[in-house]
Amino acid sequence: MYSKWLDLYKSKLKTLDEAAAMIKDGEEVYCALGGGQPFGMFEAIGQRIKRGELARVALFAGNVVVQTALTDPEIQDRVNFDTPFVGPYTREGTKAGFYTYSPIKLSDMDTVSARGLRRGDVYILRVSPMDRHGFFSTGINVDYGWGMAKTNPEKRLLIVEVNEYMPRTYGTNHIHITEADVVVEHHVPMPYIPDLPLTDVEISIGRHIAEMVPDGATIQLGIGGIPNAVGKFLMDKRDLGVHSEMLTNCMLDLYKAGVITCAKKTFMPYKWVGSFAWGSQELYDFIHENPMIEMHTCGFVNNPYIIAKNDNMISVNSTLQIDLTGQCASEAIGPYQYSGVGGQADFVQGAWLSKGGKSFIATPSTTRGKDGKLISKIVPLLDYGSFVSTPRTETHWVVTEYGAVLVKGQSIKKRAESLISIAHPDFRDWLRFEAKKLGFLS
């Protein structure tokens, strides 16, 4: 059979420019998150726009992490860029109003497509090389790209960009050569994020959270200093499991130390369950063809009721600002979009529904403004124009370098008192004064 699939592959193979020429004026093009994006096709489409050969194209893609012609500021007024997660190359364009943002939870992406609320004309997926059965794997970036493409029977064109550096993974994330309309090849290393040294604040936060993680728990961690610090202090735990939208370097470190076994998971035991990976080449090599790891769409991994099937589910997320009632603004600075809804709300809810589960919203107590002055991240009220990522009804535990406090189920008075206790000491008197003005405290 392989010769049959190989002949079909060759018949559908086109150059990047040939494939880009198949996209029509005004069409909507859908792509995955981050490392799952077709950077070769992005460059080819962008060059067509620059040459005036393509107009009014709409692109839906989250967390763009590689600069291509498509995100060149020179043409930002000629691309209808729509993103469910603002990244470094779309942040300024979104702030200026050239690009736009769609606030959609990752768990909802498949359903939004299946119900016809959002559907593209063209889907482009970055995939691993075809196997002998004719299947491509969307590898370390299943996220929403695979699910939205599979749930849209009316799409005009499905393009797969084959990259020999994309790991092949198990799970529900494959495209057969008979489903693809066009095949292109673009072989470049996967983008990665280097680990930065941990700060004292991150170390303190990591220690506070790790103390509350029991043996046998299943973890969800994001990327960055705080999740890495949590991982550092989980090294003395036993039989941890993984159910996380993102697989990260610190999880690999825990596995190598014998901490992660997935043996005590109550849902899909002995399996790491994820939707995308972001980290080092070592992590990608570990994931490649590893039967212990299953990669699924965010519609599955981020479903709160699926998450809750894991007893002792531990979720760790961060926020940009939290007010004294427990509202978290985690994706924007005032009205300016910085990142995205992502899966924070999914895992906050899923961990709460889990037997013995806990969700942690972790943040340094302060940041510095453009003028260098210290600013409290715990505030009386969220900044004007802020968007609530996690409502106060859902916030469970909040952690800063000064400790961890329970918010879920507590009164406004208790919440205010608790959050003030873990604020930076320089701001506690101010917070108490403002809380009294607002009637939160007497």
Secondary-structure map with pairings?
Blueprint (H helix, E strand, L loop, with lengths): L1 H11 L3 H5 L7 E6 L5 H12 L7 E5 L17 E4 L7 H5 L4 E2 L7 H6 L7 E6 L7 E3 L7 H6 L6 E6 L7 E2 L2 E3 L5 E4 L14 H11 L7 E3 L4 H8 L8 E7 L1 H8 L15 E6 L3 H7 L5 E3 L2 H4 L2 H4 L5 E6 L2 E3 L4 E2 L2 E2 L2 E2 L6 H10 L4 E5 L3 E3 L5 E3 L1 E2 L17 E4 L2 E4 L5 H10 L3 H13 L5
Parallel strand pairs: 1-2, 1-5, 2-3, 3-4, 5-7, 7-10, 8-14, 11-12, 11-15, 12-13, 13-14, 15-20, 16-23, 20-24
Antiparallel strand pairs: 6-9, 16-17, 18-19, 21-22, 24-25
Helix pairs in contact: 7-8, 8-9, 14-15
Keywords, separated by commas or semicolons:
442 residues; alpha/beta; Glutaconate Coenzyme A-transferase; 2 domains; 9-stranded mixed beta sheet; 7-stranded parallel beta sheet; 15 helices
Overview of the structural elements:
The chain is an alpha/beta fold and 442 residues long. The chain has 2 domains: 7-185, Glutaconate Coenzyme A-transferase (3-Layer(aba) Sandwich); 200-437, Glutaconate Coenzyme A-transferase (3-Layer(aba) Sandwich). The chain is 27% helix and 22% strand. It contains 15 helices and 25 strands. Helix 4 links the parallel strand 3 (80-83) and strand 4 (100-101). Helix 14 runs antiparallel to helix 15 (425-437). It is globular, with a radius of gyration of 22 Å. The model has no long low-confidence stretch (mean pLDDT 96).
